[in-house]
């Protein structure tokens, strides 16, 4: 008989579980608090435990830590609120098997139990391994979502937080890769040590190597006399987050691979090797596997990163999370805007949920910030939303008509101001402004890469540097 222990202080839920479990052929038993549950586990040795996190006295998470410390063979399924992200991550870090959200869906319970007993069946043929499962502080993060895709992400974060393996986070721009990296670090034993992020796309090629590995005095022109430690040294004992790792040059990829394999680095201009204890989490919005095929990314480094891979879904694939994200962003910007916003009208919410969000969560946040600024009352209306969301399609900013209309509007205001103020030199003023805006935009697109920016603009790198300085 398959034995299932339910630990919950709600008598109605316990009765419902008991009827359901008996009907499915399980042998159920009930405990109304964690202390009684621990005694039942020791005496009855159930196969599976269904554990509520909200219990009188000892909490469900405290009980989970005790169960895993005393009875590591027991499979524990957590019962928690649907959108309680923090509890889900912490429970998975403490090696819960899965979780069942409230309100209870018995089809989900059935599916999770079947998977748990299949696992138990396979596991019975393997030796049991035990480990210290001391609980750690609650994971802090800003990840938001209750969709099935995000629930899987939370589980993976909890699992990844319990080890030190290299992690690869893949996902489109704006999906929250940096938040996932921070959540993994914050939930890990390294949480009291540094979390050091490096945007590999924001630094010019010639600077990225010195930023990562540091340099000795006199390593190159302009180097500090005392030298400088690199990000690997600064992250010693903690986590190094390499964002947009696909931007690394092949030469730097070789040096990074060597550092990952040996946990040793060498500063630029140096002769001695330095030992470092660093966990590396990499992120990319590119398909690294395709870059490997094209010879743009080293295959051995790719597989080194891909030991554990986590793919963040785009927002268009988890649109049920949009209302939660909107509420979250509204709470964040209240103080910034200096006014209270109650929410968004029904029509506005429908427009936001129908939009395809090419910029993902980051675009949604920017949209809410903009709408919150523009709204004239404490409710955001459709008219407060950007035109591409109201029309249901992205405006093409490269179209000639769009550019002409936008420029005319701006130039008209500048012309009127110049006439009123009797200010000469309007042509040079406009050209200078356009020059500055265009260069800044292209630099941003190429993450500060001067060579690529100059090539797209059709000017020399020297001319570009002069314009930047000006």
What do these coordinates show?
- By secondary structure, this protein is of the alpha/beta class.
- It has 4 domains: 2-123, 3-Layer(aba) Sandwich (Rossmann fold), CATH 3.40.50.2300; 148-311, 3-Layer(aba) Sandwich (Rossmann fold), CATH 3.40.50.300; 317-391, Helicase, Ruva Protein, domain 3; 400-469, Homeodomain-like (Arc Repressor Mutant, subunit A, Orthogonal Bundle), CATH 1.10.10.60.
- 49% of the residues lie in helices and 13% in strands.
- It is built from 20 helices and 14 strands.
- The chain has helices at 11-23, 34-44, 60-70, 85-93, 106-123, 148-161, 177-186, 205-213, 231-234, 250-262, 288-293, 299-305, 322-337, 346-354, 360-374, 387-391, 400-420, 426-445, 450-457, 461-469; strands at residues 2-7, 26-31, 48-52, 75-81, 98-102, 167-170, 195-199, 239-243, 264-265, 274-275, 279-284, 308-311, 343-344, 379-380.
- Strands 2-1-3-4-5 form a 5-stranded parallel sheet, sandwiched between helices. The chain has a 5-stranded parallel sheet with strand order 7-8-11-6-12.
- α3 (60-70) links the parallel β3 and β4.
- The model is unreliable at 125-141 (pLDDT under 50).
């Amino acid at each position: 008989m398959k034995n299932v222990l339910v630990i919950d202080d709600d008598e109605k839920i316990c009765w419902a579980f008991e009827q359901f479990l008996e009907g499915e052929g399980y042998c159920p038993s009930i405990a109304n608090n964690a202390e009684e549950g621990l005694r039942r586990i020791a005496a009855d040795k159930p196969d599976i435990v269904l554990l509520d996190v909200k219990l009188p006295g000892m909490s469900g998470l405290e009980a989970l830590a005790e169960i895993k410390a005393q009875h590591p063979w027991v499979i524990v399924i957590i019962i928690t609120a649907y959108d309680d992200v923090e509890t889900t991550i912490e429970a998975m870090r403490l090696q819960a098997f899965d979780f069942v959200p409230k309100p209870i869906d018995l089809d989900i319970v059935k599916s999770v139990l079947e998977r748990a007993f299949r696992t138990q069946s396979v596991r019975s043929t393997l030796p049991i391994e035990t480990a210290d499962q001391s609980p750690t502080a609650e994971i802090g993060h800003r990840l938001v979502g209750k969709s099935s895709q995000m629930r899987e992400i939370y589980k993976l974060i909890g699992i990844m937080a319990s080890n030190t393996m290299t992690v690869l986070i893949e996902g489109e721009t704006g999906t929250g890769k940096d938040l996932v990296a921070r959540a993994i670090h914050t939930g890990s034993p390294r949480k009291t040590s540094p979390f050091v992020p490096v945007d590999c796309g924001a630094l010019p090629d010639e600077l990225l190597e010195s930023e990562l590995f540091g340099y000795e005095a006199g390593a190159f022109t302009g180097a500090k006399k005392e030298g400088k430690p690199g990000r690997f040294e600064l992250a010693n004992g903690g986590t190094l987050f390499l964002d947009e790792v696909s931007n690394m040059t092949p030469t730097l990829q070789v040096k990074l691979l060597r550092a990952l394999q040996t946990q040793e680095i060498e500063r630029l201009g140096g002769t001695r090797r330095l030992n470092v204890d660093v966990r590396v989490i990499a992120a990319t919005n590119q398909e690294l596997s395709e870059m490997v095929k094209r010879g743009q990314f080293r295959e051995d480094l790719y597989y080194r990163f891909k030991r554990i891979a986590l793919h963040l879904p785009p927002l268009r694939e988890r649109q049920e999370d949009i209302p939660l994200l909107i509420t979250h962003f509204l709470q964040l910007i209240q103080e910034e805007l200096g006014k209270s916003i109650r929410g968004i009208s029904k029509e506005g919410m429908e427009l936001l949920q129908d939009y395809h969000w090419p910029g993902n969560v980051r675009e949604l946040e920017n949209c809410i910030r903009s709408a919150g600024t523009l709204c004239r009352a404490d409710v955001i209306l459709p008219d407060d939303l950007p035109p591409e969301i109201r029309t249901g399609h992205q405006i093409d900013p490269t179209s000639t008509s769009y550019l002409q209309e936008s420029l005319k509007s701006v130039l008209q205001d500048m012309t009127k101001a110049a006439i009123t103020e009797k200010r000469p030199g309007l042509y040079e003023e406009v050209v200078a402004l356009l020059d500055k805006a265009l260069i800044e935009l292209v630099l941003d697109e190429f993450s500060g890469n001067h060579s690529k920016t100059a090539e797209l603009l059709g000017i020399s790198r020297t001319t570009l540097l002069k314009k930047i300085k000006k």
